[in-house]
Design brief:
Low-confidence stretches: none
Number of helices: 13
Helix content: 25-40%
Oligomer: single chain
Shape: globular
Radius of gyration: 24 Å
Distance between the termini: 67 Å
Structural class: alpha/beta
Mean pLDDT: 97
Number of strands: 23
Bound molecules: flavin-adenine dinucleotide, nicotinamide-adenine-dinucleotide
Strand content: 25-35%
Largest sheet: 7 strands, mixed
């Protein structure tokens, strides 16, 4: 039987980070992953690299360039002639990016002396894992410690059974070989908005049917309101409070799908060429753990863990999408590194209060920490500074002047409690807020920091100045009413 100090199950972002860090710490490490390409070759990187973060961002980037060339360049004095789209080439570019990065992960695992094993793993006991290899053979592996990182899968809802042709999940929506004329999306969450934006920019008429009456409830309400306005202006048809009851595929050659939904007490119907189901993801934990192990999954299928990702059984830890918390690649990466370091005797801790969130649309939405509605609900006394990008010299110069940057502080101490933004490059700008908040910054600290001019980052500076009413380019001072 092969023996390792650490066996990691899953080579997604959580698993491969854990495996590399464990090996760097001097622990003999194997990483087992089931993801293979059509030829049966290993494709480590999990959902994120294969059908998630990376392919979606590639299509977002390409579709943004296409839409800009079509609609924005002429006003800047750039004449392009007729701009047309080659979907095959776009998809080939996406596959090339994914291939480069999955090969990169294989190379990283190898150069860090991690043994990558391709196959489906089952945890038989606190020290034994079996792996069903692609040739059907079953291997037994002995592990002193285990890190479970099996990730997640799309949720399927009964009214919309995915047929991978007309009704697809997020993976299918990354792979369309033509631009659908009418695209329906169930769920106006992160995936719905990102992939809806991709196909809308490429020419589809996109309708999002969202069950909740509120748009992006987890996002600061002021930012969510601004974002909804912008998306509607872009042409996304976002229907809130729409409860889907049935989706029926009809036709032989030119198939279409008719969706019935209830909204505002009325029963309504809409027809689409393709329908994407994007209603959330669930942990991919079925069949992973032998019953005798004694780990009982939560109702949602999560592996129960404490703040250090420990399951309470032997030396078994679990990280990433399969455990509580937001299903985000960077959250899983940090958990993987934390667990590997703890197994090597260090005592790091993930700061779950400062997990940044980003929606990579255009403009981008990004946030960290408390929202204004959460501070109100907690009856906190808070300060607010808001800076509209319409007042930013760099934003105007770059024709990117849509959006807001907002800083929320504790009224008494001035400590920054949350930063929220909608605007170009918000995914990059939010890192400044995360760093500052990790160091316990006050709005005054940010206000006293020098920012290069002209940059979008000055918007964060101005929002911090606005908390005390000292912003130079806007008059904005607001306090919670207490
Ligand atoms: P996964 O990436 O799901 O990897 C788990 C791996 O474990 C897989 O390779 C799987 O095959 C393997 N596995 C599972 N069970 C077994 C088993 N029994 N034996 C062997 N191997 C097994 N997050 C972001 O932070 N930013 C984004 O921009 C972003 N965009 C996304 C876009 C889309 C369309 C989707 C679907 C998701 C996106 N996410 C994004 C979410 C992100 O992909 C996940 O949070 C992240 O991949 C979770 O990492 P993980 O390592 O926990 O699991
Ligand atoms: P989500 O939770 O972001 O959004 C799902 C939406 O579907 C919600 O608004 C929900 O109210 C709605 N919904 C649920 N059931 C419904 C129904 N029956 N009818 C209509 N609407 C319904 O989930 P997602 O967009 O599927 O994304 C899955 C996960 O992947 C998320 O946890 C997200 O964090 C992650 N992800 C992250 C990024 C990013 O970081 N940029 C991008 C894509 C995905």
């Amino acid at each position: 039987m092969k023996e390792f100090d650490v066996v990691v199950i899953g080579a997604g972002p959580a698993g491969y980070h854990a495996a590399i860090r464990a090996s760097q710490m001097g622990l003999s490490t194997a990483c087992i992953d089931a993801w293979v390409d059509q030829e049966g070759a290993a494709k480590p990187g999990g959902t994120c690299l294969n059908v998630g973060c990376i392919p979606s961002k590639t299509l977002l980037d390409i579709s943004h360039k296409y839409a800009s060339a079509q609609h924005d360049y002429a006003a800047l004095g750039i004449q392009t002639g007729k701009v047309s789209l080659d979907v095959d080439q776009m998809q080939a570019r996406k596959r090339a990016v994914v291939g480069q990065l999955t090969q990169g992960v294989s190379g990283l695992l190898k150069s860090n002396q991690v043994t990558l094993i391709t196959g489906q793993a089952v945890v038989q006991s606190a020290t034994v894992v079996t792996v069903t290899l692609p040739n059907g053979e079953v291997d037994h592996i002995q592990a002193k410690a285990m890190i479970l990182a099996p990730g997640s899968k799309p949720i399927v809802i009964p009214p919309c059974p995915v047929d991978h042709e007309v009704i697809v999940d997020s993976s299918g929506a990354l792979d369309f070989d033509t631009v659908p004329k009418r695209l329906g999306i169930i769920g106006a969450g992160v995936i719905g908005l990102e992939l809806g934006s991709v196909w809308q920019r490429l020419g589809a008429k996109v309708t999002l049917l969202e069950a909740l009456p509120e748009f992006l409830p987890a996002v600061d309400a002021q930012i969510a309101k601004e974002t909804l306005k912008t998306f509607k202006k872009q042409g996304l048809d976002i229907q809130l409070g729409a409860k889907v009851t049935e989706a029926k595929v009809t036709g032989q050659k030119n198939k279409k799908v008719t969706v019935r939904f209830e909204q505002g007490g009325e029963s309504l119907e809409a027809s689409f060429d393709r329908l994407v189901v994007a209603v959330g993801r669930r942990p991919a934990t079925e069949g992973l753990l032998a019953e005798s192990l004694g780990i009982t999954l939560t109702e949602r299928g999560e592996i129960p863990v404490d703040d250090q990702c420990y399951t309470g059984i032997g030396q078994i830890y679990a990280v990433g999408d399969a455990v509580r918390g937001p299903m985000l690649a960077h959250k899983g990466m940090e958990e993987g590194v934390m667990v590997a370091e703890r197994l090597a005797g260090k005592k790091p801790q993930v700061n779950y209060d400062l997990v940044p969130g980003v929606i990579y649309t255009h403009p981008e939405v990004a946030w960290v920490g408390a929202t204004e509605q959460s501070l109100k609900a907690a009856d906190r006394d808070y300060g607010v500074g808001v800076f509209p990008l319409a007042a930013s010299g760099r934003a105007i110069a770059s024709s990117e002047n849509e959006g807001l940057i907002k800083v929320l502080t504790d009224q008494a101490s001035d400590r920054v409690l949350g930063v929220h933004m909608v605007g170009a490059h918000a995914s990059e700008l939010i890192a400044q807020a995360v760093i500052a908040m990790e160091f316990g910054t006050s709005a005054e600290d940010l206000a006293l920091t020098m920012f290069a001019h002209p940059t979008l980052s000055e918007g964060l500076h101005e929002a911090a100045l606005a908390v005390s009413g000292h912003a130079i380019h806007v008059a904005s001072r607001r306090r919670s009413k207490k």
